[in-house]
Design goal:
569 residues; alpha/beta; eight-stranded mixed β-sheet; binds phosphoenolpyruvate; binds magnesium ion
Length: 569
């Protein structure tokens, strides 16, 4: 029996047999060619790249109807990387100048690109290094004639659930795994925003990533237990351990079934306080998940995902269609769309500026105000979508009142442009700000007066309050949502909302952590926005809480800037 610890990214228990996927990059031949072989070797590289690219195109054109909805976008990211001259031309130079064989040239250049991604500050972009690796693996498999990393046999022996063990799983291979008897994914690489995590979440299959070297420790057919909540993995468990995990698996299934019953129950506390449970989405298609989970609203639509991973900007029409589809899906429930939160490290394709301190640079609202045409295009699309249902415009990274005023001016101009065109817009579009910079939370009064609503972005608020980079694993221990300074800023913002009757939500990760629900209720929070999958867990906590007692306890601790022990609440 062997116990491993990774990163649980999709909750749930799975017990089954291992299916180990090959990793071509680990097994490539490295040798030097002679100068008269350069032309043929370069051609071998180019034709493998073309064949891999054609494979991807075929997959994308024949996507089955029940494929996870992110799949088309993921395949196009891979296609883009595959056709990037940074890969092909740079590898060709290694063949021509260093006389590397094609496989060696390709893996060397891939490693270099991967390292460049690894240096990026933004977690999403950092994890795109994994996509480079997967693309390289695909080309290497073409070169070796093994077109798939999936084993050719051994899939259907017995009735056991199968658990895929891999170094990494590409979106294209995920597609092949869909619908089979695959009950779990375990990988050496990958983090919470890797594509493996994204797709596993949409397939709702327990997954543990970042296990380091599980692929070398497990053989086909080994019995595996994986706990997607804690990230624990047990290889060839003893009968007692197996029994214990079967018990936990059954208890978890009962718990989920009980939670499902809460889907249509109101989110109301024992002392009658109504709580709004809202959903965070990144792609328009996810609105359906939000609705299915019983969300009262979309509390945060991160619109930057419409802008990333492409070489052009989405047009007003494209954005209008995307926003409108969410508004229509939500069928009268409010839809909060955040204007583009991009800049500095999260660059649009083709932009090369690297700020000295990207998290403090020209990003989000600062970027939009500096690029009025881009901002106006988005605002027009948002205002047009408001004709189909309640749209709330959410401004990210606000720190100054002059930014709020400039944003209002831009909204007024966008409205005038639409009226001049004779296009329909709603008269009552609400405008709010993210509270994610400490300055606004400390001096909140003019902001709460000027705006219709506020949404606290605790992910960034914690980072800026504690001066801890939210994506830097070396300081992860200092990233502390429970720091009294952070809680005081949240409390100040919620109190300002109470005094003025304005809607105040939290849309950072804290809102979806059921362990924090009682504490947040104690701070007076009445609107929580989170990933749709977290909604029922939070609803259960809400329905079992009494806010009066919680508010007293939390207030007395905060008055003394004391840490709150969640177990005492
Ligand atoms: C936040 O900062 O808490 C937030 C919700 O926004 P993002 O995670 O997109 O920065
Ligand atoms: Mg933020």
């Amino acid at each position: 029996m062997l116990c491993l610890q990774g990163l649980g990214v999709v909750k749930g228990f799975v017990i089954g047999r291992a299916v180990v996927m090959g990793a071509a990059a680990l097994e490539v031949p490295h040798y030097r060619i002679s100068s008269d072989e350069v032309a043929a070797e370069t051609e071998r590289l180019r034709s493998a790249l073309r064949a891999a690219s054609a494979d991807l195109d075929t997959l994308a054109e024949n996507l089955p109807e029940d494929a996870p909805k992110e799949m088309a976008a993921l395949l196009s990211v891979h296609s883009m990387l595959l056709n990037d001259p940074m890969l092909e031309e740079a590898a060709a130079v290694l063949i021509a100048e260093r006389f590397y064989n094609a496989e060696w040239a390709l893996t060397t250049q891939g490693q270099l690109l991967g390292e460049q991604f690894a240096l990026m500050e933004d977690e999403y972009l950092r994890e795109r290094g994994a996509d480079v690796r997967q693309v390289i693996e695909r080309v290497l498999r073409v070169m070796t004639g093994a077109h798939s990393a999936l084993p050719a046999d051994g899939w259907d022996a017995g009735d056991d659930t199968l658990i895929v063990v891999a170094r990494d799983i590409s979106p294209a291979d995920m597609l092949k795994l869909r619908g089979g008897r695959f009950g779990g994914f375990l990988t050496d690489l990958g983090g919470p925003t890797s594509h493996t995590a994204i797709v596993a979440r949409s397939m709702n299959v327990p997954a543990v990533l970042g296990l380091g070297n599980i692929r070398s420790l497990v053989r086909d057919g080994d019995t595996l237990i994986a706990d997607g909540t804690s990230g624990a993995v047990v290889v060839n468990p003893s009968p007692q351990v197996l029994l214990e995990y079967r018990r936990r698996q059954a208890a978890y299934a009962d718990e989920r079934a009980a939670l499902e019953l809460l889907r249509d129950a109101p989110a109301i506390t024992l002392d009658g306080v109504n709580i709004s449970l809202e959903a965070n989405i990144e792609l328009p298609e996810e609105a359906a998940d939000a609705l299915a989970a019983g969300a009262d609203a979309i509390g945060l639509f991160r619109s930057e995902f419409l802008f990333m991973g492409r070489s052009d900007l989405p047009s007003e029409e494209e954005q209008y269609q995307a926003y409108t589809s969410v508004v229509k899906t939500m069928n009268g429930r409010p839809v909060t769309i955040r204007t583009l939160d991009i800049g500095a490290d999260k660059t649009l394709d083709g932009e090369t500026t690297v700020a000295t301190n990207p998290a403090l640079g020209l990003r989000a609202i600062r970027y939009c105000l500096a690029n009025p045409e881009l901002f106006l295009t988005q605002l027009r699309a948002l205002l047009r979508a408001s004709a189909h249902g309640p749209v709330r415009i959410l401004l990210p990274m606000i720190a100054h009142m002059h930014e709020v005023k400039a944003a209002y001016r831009a909204i007024a101009i966008a409205k005038e442009q639409l009226i001049a065109r004779g296009q329909a817009i709603a008269t009552n579009v609400q405008v709010g700000a993210m509270v994610e910079i400490p300055a606004i939370a400390i001096a909140i009064e003019p902001f709460v007066e000027a705006l219709d609503f506020l949404s606290i972005g605790t992910n960034d608020l914690i980072q800026y309050t504690l001066a801890v980079d939210r994506g830097d694993s070396e300081v992860v221990d200092l990233y502390d949502p429970m720091h009294p300074a952070v809680l005081r800023l949240i409390s100040n913002t919620i109190n300002a909302g109470e005094r003025t009757g304005k809607h105040v939500a939290i849309c950072g990760e804290m809102a979806g952590d059921a362990a924090m629900t009682r504490m947040l209720l104690g701070l007076g929070l009445k609107a929580f926005s989170m990933h749709p999958q977290q909604l029922l867990d939070v609803k259960k906590e809400v329905r079992e809480s009494h806010t009066n007692a919680l508010r007293n306890k939390v207030a007395s601790a905060l008055n003394r800037a004391q840490r709150i022990d969640l177990n005492d609440l």
